[in-house]
Amino acid sequence: MTRQAVxxxxxxxxxxxxxxxxELAVLDEQLGxxxxxxxxxxxxxxxxxxxxxxxxxxxxxxxxxxxxxxRRALVERIGELERRQDELLERLDVD
Length: 95
Hints:
Layout: H1 3-48, H2 51-94
Helix pairs in contact: 1-2
Keywords: Coiled coil
Coiled coil: 3-30, 64-91
């Protein structure tokens, strides 16, 4: 891979990394809100003991779990991009 190709790939990886980190910040903010909502729904379910409240609580918990999985996948993607960026930087040092 030529130096220009490595630099181009490095710029692309960096841009993807910046975007992924921005997505993570948004996801973390949303996740905080979902945690609060799931906790509230769980408490309402415990206090009211109605089927509707129980359904709302389990629904909120499913949403929370989905967001948690999405966050985990995004963190893994960021790790992969960071490793790729490191590899490209090493190639620049070698050339």
